[in-house]
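For practice. Any example?
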Amino acid sequence: MKVLSLASEAYPLVKTGGLADVVGALPAALAAHGIETTTLLPGYPAVLKTLGRARVVHRWPALLGTPARLLAGKLGAQPLLVLEAPELFTRDGGPYVAPSGQDWPDNWRRFAALARAGADLASGAVAGHRYDVLHAHDWQAGLAPAYLRYAPGPGPVAKSVVTIHNIAFQGRFDADIFPHLGLPAAAFAIDGVEYYGGVGFLKGGLESADAITTVSPTYAQEIHAPEFGMGLEGLIAARADRVTGIVNGIDPAIWNPDTDAALPARYSVRTLPRRVANKRAVESTFGLDRGDGPLFCVVSRLTWQKGMDVLADSIDAIVAAGGRLAVLGSGDGALEQAFYLAGERHAGSVGVRIGYDEPLSHLVQGGSDAILIPSRFEPCGLTQLYGLAYGCVPVVARTGGLADTIIDANVAAIDAEVATGVQFSAVTPAGLMGAIHRTIALYRRPERWSAMQRRGMRADFSWASSGEAYARLYGGLP
């Protein structure tokens, strides 16, 4: 079976979040099931630099009005295709936002071009390329199934799958872009790409795909409800028989404390006491006073969705309870400022690094005692899985993939020796602090704490089972 995976980012070539980790790791997991996955990415400068001299496999004189080429390379051991369109992707800034911090105004065109290229590849318009399945990730690839449905190429049309990594990000644009998309008038309809009078990239993909997946079973159920469906809950309910939740995996070749070059001290389940050297390194890096009390950490986007406003409001109480905090992330300017001020207010107990640093994120997980993830909604989450792998006990809100992957340390779970973290329900300062106090009480019982760390480290959240689930999904497409 041949699958074309269409996405806006993939680790290690380009990454802004967990989407990249998933897209980068899934091809190798599928290869174990006899599935060859080709990944198609935009030709951002960093991607083209890594690609180097590459073979041109196709040219478009005018792909949504601009010349474009398709370049061939490798993503690890798996095939990679890169859409080189300088007018769309050769620019400073991030994949989605300009240096000013604002979204690129032509994002609709940039990612429509990516989707059109993917649909061409998956429907016989590019010589020498044939795929059984087109797998589109999030809104940036969402129009690809709509192109397959309304304006396919001249050859056999692949089946299509859309994965929702976060339904809050939908790719909604004004109706005046529709004439420039190259879709027939019939596509601008309630069961097509039309969405509240405009164009919905994700919505169009969800209407057109043969199957829909989310990144955890609980999130697949939650998005049927208005508080999680973000306006698309009716569509999800109408297509409920096509919706499946598959928990993301992590790549143990990248996230493994026994081999991680980012850690001053590498360790395993059998050598867990070595972690203390990493704790010392986290303290030094974040300007924290040395101590043996509980060190909490955050590796996150600093946004309302992630519950970072609740955490910011709770920092005084965390310090008063005897906890320390290392924060690594960026996001909302007001929240960044709130964490900065907390760091000044509690010098030696709270350290803050604004931005994202991949090696530092490994150190933070490898040296902190517990990771705080108070998300209001979380489709899957990967940081809690990294925490488990590194013996950094997750303290999580009971939602989405967090609920699916962490076993709460309640009395029954502790007695049964199955607990791997701490869950809480109300994403409020009181709810979070209740979980913090429970975590500190567990930490003060070293035998119980280390047993919970080791249990998490032994848990299998590799891509093996998730890859098998995707392989079954592909094989069962109607």
Q: What stands out?
A: The domain at 2-249+463-475 is CATH 3.40.50.2000 (Rossmann fold). The mean pLDDT is 97. The chain has two domains: 2-249+463-475, 269-458.
